[in-house]
Amino acid sequence: MKHNLLELISSPLIINKAMKEISSSEFEKEVLQSGKVILDFYSTECPPCEALASKFEDLSILYGNDVKFLKIFRQKNRELADKLGIKSSPTLLFFDKGKEVADRLSGGIKRSDIIIRLDSMLSADRVEHIKSHIKPTVSEFDVIILGAGPGGLTAGLYLCQSKVNTVLIDIALPGGQVSTTHEVSNYPGFIEPQAGYMLSHNMSEQTKMCGTVYKVAVDITRIDLEKKEVIIDEYETVKAKKIIIATGTTPNLTGAPGEKELKGKGISYCATCDAKYFDDKEVVVIGGGNSAIEESEYITRFASKLTIVHQFDKFTANKQAQDKVFRNPKISTLFEYEPRGFVREGDKIITEIENLRTKERQKLFSDGVFIFIGMKPNVDLFKEKLELDQWGYIKTNEDMQTNIPGIYAVGDVISKKYRQITTAVADGTIAAMAIAKELN
């Protein structure tokens, strides 16, 4: 059984020029005085680095005669990393004749994004020639899990321990939304609140160490639920007897003009990711549910002033979270208002809001805006085939089975009353046990 992303046919083109590990003392000769180079700054105990490693090796086989593939250990070459402005691992840099020629990549790096940059360094004829030597591959498993949040990871753990051959596929890195939650205080077994990224990291490592195969930070090209096939990165078809959908949810947008244009440029949906950039600055938060209120409290660890804009006359968050916000001197609230537009003016974001009672409008000037107004299920790749509820969530039975035989769904993507880490973990447990019993 093959698990490689690519199977390359025999040709002088694909003789692998082994990747070379260099140190900072070799940087001048190997990079600045060389031709086309891709350089990977990696670290140990780094899940994104592990996810990148196989892609980097596969692409070195494919592009190795045209581009030099180099790796450098960031921790032992920190001075060079700092000089080059490397802030995270892994980070890929692309050079030609000593100059950077493409945007850097870091974090959960997709194979397709690397290919785009490598192709830009070569002639069109050469790119066509290289790609003509790619032969698609097929991998076979008992179960495919789509999504590596708590529900998917738990299903992977239970299936692995039941000796069921399982692959976990995700377009991002493992962890789901938990990995960007600053603190989890209600997960059983921990007396003290846990950092979200550590809780999700531990879940992922436990499932990986059991033996579940990971294919993460990939592009999902197509999903066929009837055939139980998933095509990733255009070239690899993954087949299975069962599929568990654990694709979770993504943040809702307000739909106000300027929001999409300013996403990542002053408008954020992740406090854990971006709150630190607003130290001693003023921030606007849109929303009034649990996420909005709890994240507002966290954002004020950095921001000097925070204004919450909420469409109703009272918050819908839990009472404990509300009490904290009302006691926080940095936080003020505008009830019964909605955003009507976002504009950048210099280094400020202008949020135009409307009073829902009087219809009067006013402008709020801030350094950034955080939006927390609920989530939507990630079902676009297969929603035409599955039975959904009125809000677009997947309907399941008590064993987490959908209306399609052999297809299960777990976690936040399914139709249910409560969506928590613990309920996702329970869903994953149920689906895995049902599948293991059936397969055995």
Written account of the structure:
It is a single chain. The protein has 440 residues and is α/β, with parallel strands linked by helices. It folds into three domains: 7-135, 3-Layer(aba) Sandwich (Glutaredoxin), CATH 3.40.30; 139-250 and 375-439, FAD/NAD(P)-binding domain; 259-371, FAD/NAD(P)-binding domain (3-Layer(bba) Sandwich). Helix content is 27%, strand content 27%. The chain has twelve helices and 27 strands. It has helices spanning 27-32, 47-63, 78-83, 111-120, 124-131, 150-161, 196-210, 259-262, 271-274, 290-299, 319-327, 421-439; strands at residues 7-8, 20-22, 36-42, 68-73, 91-96, 99-100, 105-106, 134-135, 137-140, 143-146, 166-170, 213-216, 220-224, 229-232, 236-239, 242-245, 249-251, 267-268, 282-286, 305-310, 331-335, 337-345, 348-355, 361-366, 368-371, 375-377, 407-409. Strands 2, 3, 4, 5, 6 and 7 form a six-stranded mixed beta sheet that branches. Helix 2 (47-63) links the parallel strand 3 and strand 4. Helix 6 runs parallel beside helix 12 (421-439).
Which terms would index this structure?
globular; 3 domains; Glutaredoxin; single chain; five-stranded parallel β-sheet; FAD/NAD(P)-binding domain
